[in-house]
Amino acid sequence: MQRAPAGAAPSTRGTRDRRRGGPLRRVPLLVWMFLLVPLAVELFWVFWPAMNSFSLSFTSWKGVGAAKPVGLENYQRLAADPIFHTALRNNVIWVVGFGGLSVVGGLALAVALNRPGRGVGFYRSAIYLPMVISLAVTGLFWRVMYQPDGPIDAGLGVLGLDWLQRQWLADPDTALYAVLIAAVWRQVGYIMVLYLAGLKGTDPTLEEAAAVDGANAWQRFWRIVMPQLRGVNTVVFAVTVIDSLRTFDIVWAMTRGGPYNTTQLLSTYMFQQAFTVVNLGYGSAIAVVIFLLAIAFIITYLARQARAEES
């Protein structure tokens, strides 16, 4: 076998081969299993059903037998369905009310509790505690609160506001907003924690410099602190929009979409059509609408944020 002459440069082919895919080869098999097994489960239980919903939305299917292709018939029915229109309008109200109140309330609480003091940790834990409770249990708890002669009506009576007492969940004018308040009560602690984490990452020296220059508290917060929370705002916006569009448990536990469909959301109407009426094709069409709305909201917001950063 011919040997390389002394002093000759070593062959680089083996070095290139070792470099090629080297880091991947050094990853232990156990790590690959921890990565690939959850990915396979996610693909099977989440992504495949989601993609299947798109194909089902163009069919008529009762859950047994073969699905019958109907083209765009389900979407044409949605355009003429008054309950779908009510659910869509309620979802817009829900996104604005749930998102707006949760964000404003969570940010205000985060600013108020972002300082050392006696009992601050207790208040943070108490405000976050409702987030630990499931949405179904939260809905049952607030059903008791809203019952005739329940705690809310009793409190109004003590304050001399008897004229405000009513059957909150049975009144079409108040049912949706009563459920909305319950949902915000649970969500506000989560938003508070996100903003507390963001406030901990801000630079206090910038605010101190602005105070020395004569900026008041509002100017310091709006012009110094808020720009540093841009990343947190993006996360909060995505979370609130997605949670708004997929809200189901608390509405179903409190009203089941009633009275007279006045609290229907897209998620509850989809559930009714898919699993109560067993019209899976029509329910899948509603699910596709929910998905498209979520994507449209988030992409629009991210595009606006990108343009704002460029300018």
Strand and helix layout:
Layout: H1 13-19, H2 22-26, H3 29-56, E1 59-60, E2 68-69, H4 73-79, H5 82-113, H6 120-132, H7 135-146, H8 151-158, H9 175-200, H10 204-212, H11 217-228, H12 230-246, H13 249-254, H14 266-276, H15 280-310
Antiparallel strand pairs: 1-2
Helix pairs in contact: 3-15, 4-15, 5-9, 5-12, 6-9, 7-9, 9-12, 10-11, 12-15, 14-15
Task: Write up what this structure looks like.
The protein has 15 helices and two strands. The model has no long low-confidence stretch (mean pLDDT 85). The chain has a two-stranded antiparallel sheet. Strand 1 and strand 2 form a beta hairpin. It is an all-alpha fold. Helix 5 (82-113) packs parallel to helix 9, helix 7 (135-146) packs across helix 9 (175-200) and helix 10 (204-212) packs antiparallel against helix 11 (217-228). It is globular. The protein has helices spanning 13-19, 22-26, 29-56, 73-79, 82-113, 120-132, 135-146, 151-158, 175-200, 204-212, 217-228, 230-246, 249-254, 266-276, 280-310; strands at residues 59-60, 68-69.
